[in-house]
Design a protein that fits this description.
Elements lengths: L2 E3 L4 E4 L7 H7 L2 E2 L3 E3 L14 E8 L7 E4 L6 E2 L6 E9 L4 E8 L3 E8 L6 E8 L4 E2 L13 E7 L2 E6 L5 E12 L2 E10 L6 H15 L1 H19 L1 E4 L2 H15 L28 H13 L1 H13 L1 H10 L22 E4 L6 E3 L2 H4 L2 H17 L3 H21 L1 E3 L4 E3 L17 H24 L1 H11 L5 H10 L25 H7 L25 H7 L6 H11 L11 H10 L3 H12 L1 H4 L5 E2 L2 E2 L5 H15 L2 E4 L2 E4 L9 E8 L2 E7 L4 E5 L1
Antiparallel strand pairs: 1-2, 2-8, 3-4, 4-5, 5-6, 7-12, 8-9, 9-10, 10-11, 11-16, 13-14, 14-15, 15-16, 17-26, 18-19, 20-21, 22-23, 24-25, 26-27, 27-28
Helix pairs in contact: 4-20, 5-6, 5-9, 5-20, 6-9, 6-10, 9-10, 9-11, 10-11, 11-12, 11-13, 11-15, 15-17, 17-18, 17-20, 18-20
The structure holds beta-D-glucopyranose (BGC).
The site of beta-D-glucopyranose has 12 residues, from loops.
């Protein structure tokens, strides 16, 4: 296929392949954190997986999975009798967040350019021209995975108003056309919902009217200016490797278009804003792989992501109560309320073809510790204490309370244990003492103690009010004790940290060997009859991810031994896996081992090689966690960035063909540039 990057900033496809429609919809995504618009063509609709996904607006068709709403598509424009495609070129300008296409059909040639405004999150702009006149409207027959979500209240060529089934959310899409000549026009499309304001119809009308009055150039320039600021903060320059340069920039582009800049009630779903896969839900992906990028490049976005977890704390409390625990048990799949929308049956059993019980929802308790980790690193890097009084202190303490009530104290072993959990490696469910989970929980407990102390010291009034309401201080002693006495699996005589109790006794084999045992190409490797369940094959980085986070607790020998042990046993069946292997390898001084994993994470949305199906379930879409992982690998891996109270240091581990790596970070409110060459490091205030 003829896809390539046409310049440092342009991704280009110069052939139309119907089989690539779903992938190109992801590759040519536009978005602004409020909405994500799939990169299908203007004439495309439901069958081609066109999508205008709204962040945070969910709906459920009875008996089906709850998922985000795909809004009526105001870009929809067709030319009757166009015929077959003869020539096609589609370009994505990363620098300015614009998509352009030129398509020669047998009977007409169509050109267009579009953007989803970063300056006005409710607005999209379309410039369209064709050699025969086209009909533009708003398509309300949209693609859905789990049923049709809305009733149409009003429809005309330039205005569609719909109401969602479950909660009656009103979505208004209004447009204004500005003709250029007989067959060309500008279209200003606005979307407002009743979640945004009381009268979304009036707001959408007014927004489009004002955009038309301002004109294409002005609204476009305002949009470009925001992207320019975004790139000024986050761009990374790699000298000596154009392919890596493009892939990394593209990853940052994908990540930025999902970022909620306008609201602290939204986060970033695991498949970004690319569709309804994974129910548009927010997973630990955000806290572990995305928030760290934003905390150092655009702290206001990181703060919004954290406040989303604070606003959804009650949902996490409800989940803890549901399972008979105290405190807050964050959702494995979180939507707008924080209640867990992860279903009990997520995959199909190979032999019976029946839905198979999975325990992601019930047992993946590390998610709460991941939230605490994101909050604490955000605080350390920004110095923003106010996040604690805005809800984060309460969230952290409620997580500690949950972990304490989940744990078992083993009198005979004189230690706390965390039994019956699922670690990051989802192929092994209901295991005991997963090293990653235990270490993260220890961190969460210590953090909770520290946060409450900090609060008492810096804002005693707030501390006492909080404490009167929730009584945390009575429990701090028990959290301290548990943190000190929680079992953390240590390296064995060969330096290997066992992923969970009994892991090393399982059949020792590799993913390659398991592939030869597969009966159905799409069969699930975990759970009841899963091929990996009885073996040491793991789905994704687990111990290695833990070692990456708690590097200073272990010697380089131990870290190396574990990388070498787990690497051949890891399937990388999740896009979250590669970056952990990249970072750890780079820090071991093995950048060329790291490079393959770096490229794997950085190209995930370009190559389209990641899984599209899990059994019969479509799981395609973009991978913002892997995008974040690409940045983490470059910055914490190859540049060897370390930030602590003493300041910023970098220990370069550049791949042998890289001449230099240059990037900016914001730390404690100040902007720095870091320029790393194989043997030199320059850190300076920007
Ligand atoms: C991974 C999880 C991840 C989820 C969403 C799963 O395949 O195993 O760790 O959170 O995908 O990206």
């Amino acid at each position: 296929m003829n896809t390539k990057y046409a310049s440092e900033w342009i991704y280009c496809v110069s052939e139309f392949l119907p089989d690539d429609l779903a992938l190109n919809g992801n590759r040519f995504m536009l978005g602004n954190g409020y909405m994500g618009v799939r990169g299908t063509l203007e004439e495309h609709g439901e069958n081609e997986l066109a999508g205008v996904m709204l962040n945070g607006g969910y709906d459920q068709v009875p008996g089906r999975w709850r998922e985000p709403v795909n809004a009526p598509n105001g870009l929809f424009t067709v030319v009757d009798g166009a015929g077959e495609i003869v020539r096609h070129e589609q370009r994505l300008d990363l620098r300015r967040g614009r998509m352009a296409r030129e398509t020669e059909y047998e009977n007409v040639t169509v050109e267009s350019e579009r953007f989803v405004s970063m300056a006005n999150v409710h607005l999209m702009g379309l410039k369209y021209s064709s050699t025969r006149s086209a009909k533009t409207s708003i398509d309300s027959k949209v693609w859905n995975i789990n049923g049709s979500h809305f009733h149409i209240l009003e429809t005309s060529l330039d205005e569609v108003v719909v109401k969602t089934q479950e909660q009656g959310i009103i979505i208004a899409v209004c447009s204004e056309i500005e003709p250029i000549d007989e067959t060309s026009f500008y279209k200003y499309i606005s979307i407002y919902t009743s979640l945004d304001c009381d009268d979304p119809v009036a707001a959408a009308r007014e927004n489009s009217r004002a955009a038309k009055e301002a004109g294409w150039e002005k609204v476009g320039a305002e949009h470009d200016a925001v992207w320019e600021k975004i790139w000024a903060r986050c761009d990374v320059k790699i000298e000596g490797d154009d392919e890596a340069q493009f892939a990394l920039r593209y990853s940052l582009y994908q990540l930025q278009l999902t970022a909620p800049r306008h609201s602290d009630r939204l986060s970033i779903p695991a498949r970004g804003l690319s569709g309804q896969v994974y129910k548009g839900a927010v997973f630990w992906d955000t806290e572990m792989f995305m928030t760290p990028f934003f905390a150092l490049t655009d702290p206001a976005v990181a703060r919004n992501l954290i406040l989303y977890r604070c606003h959804t704390l009650d949902g996490a409390r409800r989940k803890a109560t549901e399972y008979g625990f105290r405190g807050a048990f964050y959702a494995w799949e979180s939507q707008e309320t924080g209640d867990d929308f992860c279903t009990h049956f997520n995959v199909t059993d190979l032999f019976t073809d029946r839905p198979m019980r999975t325990y992601f929802r019930d047992k993946q308790i590390h998610v709460g510790a991941d939230v605490v980790y994101a909050i604490w690193t955000y605080y350390e890097q920004t110095g923003d204490f106010s996040v604690f009084t805005d809800g984060a202190a309460e969230a952290v303490a409620e997580c500690a309370r949950f972990f304490h009530s989940y744990a078992y104290y083993k009198e005979d072993k004189v230690r706390y244990e965390l039994l019956d959990v699922v670690g990051p490696d989802e192929y092994h469910e209901r295991v005991h003492n997963n090293a990653f989970t235990n270490r993260m929980v220890k961190f969460a407990l210590e953090t909770a103690v520290q946060v409450l102390e900090l609060l008492r010291e810096r804002d005693p009034e707030f501390f006492h009010t909080l404490d009167r309401q929730f009584g945390f201080s009575e429990e701090v002693g028990s959290w301290k004790k548990m943190a000190a006495e929680l079992y953390i699996p240590s390296p064995n005589e060969k330096g290997i940290i066992e992923q969970f109790d009994g892991y090393l006794k399982l059949e020792d084999t590799t993913p390659e060997e398991l592939k030869t045992r597969v009966i159905k190409p799409t069969e699930y490797w975990g759970g009841g009859h899963g091929l990996a369940t009885t073996t040491q094959v793991l789905k994704q980085a687990d111990v290695v991810l833990m070692l990456n986070l708690f590097r200073s607790d272990y010697s380089a020998e131990v870290i190396k031994a574990n990388w070498e042990y787990y690497e051949p046993r890891t399937e990388h069946g999740s896009s979250l896996s590669a970056c952990a292997y990249a970072m750890v390898a780079a820090n071991l001084g093995k950048p060329d081992w790291a490079y393959t994993y770096f490229m794997k994470t950085a190209t995930v949305d370009l190559t389209g090689k990641s899984k599209l199906y899990l059994g019969p379930l479509y799981i395609g879409g973009t991978h913002p966690a892997a995008n974040g992982g690409a940045w983490l690998s470059a910055v914490f891996g190859f540049a060897g960035l370390q930030i602590n109270a003493a300041g910023i240091t970098a220990t370069p581990n550049l791949p042998s063909h890289w001449k230099s790596l240059k990037f900016g970070i914001e730390w404690q409110g100040k902007a720095y540039q870091i320029h790393v060459k194989p043997d030199t490091v320059r850190v300076y205030e920007a």
